[in-house]
Design a protein that fits this description.
The chain is mainly alpha-helical and 315 residues long. The protein is built from 13 helices and no strands. It has one domain.
Length: 315
């Protein structure tokens, strides 16, 4: 059975759409966090996303039934766990440090593919990943790598799980429609959100006012602002996550994972437009490194020579 063909340029276009949309919607999580909790947000967003999918499924001819339910469920569980750990770490670690940990995912993609799937990786790919990660640190600032501790390992664990989920998108869920994989992801987060709400309803915790209580806040009566921006999140996430899933389906994970770095300059651009947040020259230089990494990783892979193992070059 021949391996799926890489469509790197199309994947990069899908990632650009994903970054533009998700960077916009994620800038409003701070608004959502004023009145609601993380768990209620996930549960509500999933309900809204499923309602949108139900409305557009027939007109758009969407195929939501998985061909391999077990594979889709496993992939959804891995990605869902990554997001729970990521958001959970935000409760007691600086945002910059958590984000830097999550963006170790491309490094884990290469390591997993090399040692678990015996896929060869070039020196250029390795260099590109580390250049991209250096750019991330520059964008986020020196505090991103400060204060290393056991707790600081949580975002890195999230990055490893995120990498596993990205690889699973292509290797386990080949042949599944993008909308099926997206529905599985949202469904898993919805279940996690309902469980979190139930736990905090039975065992309530002290909750600080405003965004500071995002993680500890149990079910509350939703405000109009919470519902509106959660709906924007649901609609934007359906499009954005659908694009990133499609990207991982049509190109190798080691390539697409580096393209994902583009969400950082996209988030910074929206932060400037929406909130007037400006970048330092170091952050701008870091963005330059991110784009260099993307350009390096997207270079065409040289065809294997006759004496090279076919397994080593399999994409």
């Amino acid at each position: 059975m021949s391996a799926p063909q890489n469509r790197t340029l199309a994947a990069f276009g899908a990632v650009l759409i994903y970054a533009f949309v998700i960077a916009f919607t994620d800038n409003y999580v701070r608004v959502i966090a004023r009145d609601g909790g993380l768990w209620q947000f996930h549960a509500t967003r999933t309900a809204m996303a499923f309602a949108i999918l139900a409305l557009v499924a027939l007109p758009l001819g969407l195929h939501l039934r998985p061909k391999r339910p077990g594979a889709v469920l496993a992939r959804s569980a891995i990605h869902g766990a990554a997001m729970v750990i990521y958001f959970g770490a935000l409760a007691f670690l600086p945002v910059a440090q958590v984000a830097a940990g999550l963006f170790t995912a491309p490094i884990f993609v290469l390591l997993i593919q090399r040692f678990l799937y015996a896929q060869s990786i070039s020196g250029l790919q390795i260099v590109a990943v580390f250049i991209g990660f250096a750019g991330v640190v520059m964008v986020l600032g020196p505090e991103a790598m400060a204060g290393a501790s056991l707790a600081a390992l949580l975002p890195v664990i999230a990055g490893a799980l995120y990498a596993m989920g990205n690889i699973a998108t292509r290797r386990w869920c080949e042949g599944e429609s993008a909308e099926t994989v997206v529905a599985g992801f949202f469904g898993m987060l919805g279940v996690i959100g309902l469980v979190g709400m139930a736990v905090l309803w039975v065992f309530p915790l002290p909750v600080p006012d405003g965004p500071g209580g995002f993680l500890q806040r149990g079910p509350v009566w939703p405000t109009g602002e919470f519902l509106w921006w959660t709906f924007v999140q649901a609609a934007g996430s359906l499009l954005g996550v659908g694009m990133i899933v499609r990207a991982y389906q049509i190109a190798e994970a080691s390539r697409v994972s580096v393209f994902e770095y583009v969400i950082l300059p996209a988030s910074a651009a929206w932060g400037l437009i929406l909130w007037g947040e400006r970048l330092t020259w170091i952050a701008i230089a870091g963005m330059g490194l991110i784009f260099v990494a993307g350009a390096l990783i997207a270079r065409p892979v040289r065809e294997p020579t006759p004496d090279q193992s076919p397994t080593a070059s399999r994409q």
